[in-house]
């Protein structure tokens, strides 16, 4: 497992965010593990979300920017299968040690993961629109 873990850590890159003596265990996990994974997997998250939106009859793409924000949040919080798929994309880049840490407090860490992912997608709504135009042209 050492080989896999070292490759995963090298792929993800450095810690994102500050860590000091007062940083909570969950925040350390967030900055060392979750943020780098979300950054690494960003393009995949966008592709997965666009695919989801297309399969939902393209409703997302006709919404106003404010409603797109609500749609992103609503879908990730309420569609259990979709949320589990997104969690799998993140957990798949955990080291074994990180996974063991994660299962000790998975409920709270799942909330952090999904909130961070929701914010990441909301911040890229324009990119989601542009990618969809290219995606439609391919279909």
Automatic annotation (TrEMBL):
Domain of life per record: Bacteria
Protein name, entry field: Glyoxalase
Coiled-coil segments on the chain, per record: 111-138
Keywords: Coiled coil
